Amino acid sequence: MSTALTTRTAALTVAAWRDYDPDACALPGMHLGDLELTGPAGEEADRLWEAGVRRVRLAEPVDLADPRTAHHAVRALSLVRDLTARAVLVEWRLRLDPAAEADAWQVLSHLQPPQRLDGPADAAGALRRWREGHYLCKCLWRQGPGFVQIRDRRWGDLRRFTADEPEYHQVIEALVHGAPADTVPPAVLADFLSEKLVLRVGDLAWWLPYRVNRWIQEAMAI
To answer: Does 2 map to a domain?
Structure first.
């Protein structure tokens, strides 16, 4: 499918450093300056990693409360997700819809926790729980020979989903960087939405799990 969002949205501006530690980042040569990312988020995440980037700060907050900024929000979320998969430290800010459910943040809890969270009535408490419960590989997907498997621990227990129908893999590919929700098969989209594996942002649908690049332990244990 060719409906995925790539370069037709505005560039993302990020500050980049070569180390995780703030003291190390203050040393000469560690700050790579402000970078404008114009390519697909996955390719940009790979490029940043290969350039030695280990800490990134997004210039603008990710606003999920305003449907007018849906394309930009999905693009930024894709970068956060793909850098999280690389175990890159991402500094970002997130605004959720104040009318959303109190635990709406939990669908994003596999991502690097934001520095600031706005929207929920108890934003400070939600952000604290997010930080305390976050770890790498919390919600991931992998492609095997003839099947797709998702492993999800965002809710505390392990939820495993396996699909061998080709249309499920096609929808994942279409939604990895976001696509209009009405461009994918409704039945497959409904299945993913019911399991909270896809996020609706304005008129877009966006794939939540990431393909892990950094294992925290042997793959068979994840």
So the answer is: no
Q: What is the Cα 163 distance to its own chain's centre?
A: 21
CA distance 133 to 13: 28
Is residue 4 one of the residues assigned to a domain?
no
d(CA 62, CA 92): 8
Q: At what angle do helices 186-194 and 166-175 cross, to 10 degrees?
A: 70
Query: Residue 52: pLDDT band by 50, 70, 90 thresholds?
Result: very high
Q: Which of 183, 185, 177 is nearest to 206 (CA)?
A: 177
Assigned domain for 5 exists: no
Taking the chain, what is the end-to-end CA distance rounded to the nearest angstrom?
30
Total of domains in the chain:
1
Q: Is 33 contained in some domain?
A: yes
CA distances from 117 to 1, 89, 100, 210 (A): 34, 17, 14, 21
Closest among 66, 150, 157, 57 to 112, alpha carbons compared: 57
pLDDT tens digits for range 183-201 = 999 999 999 999 999 999 9
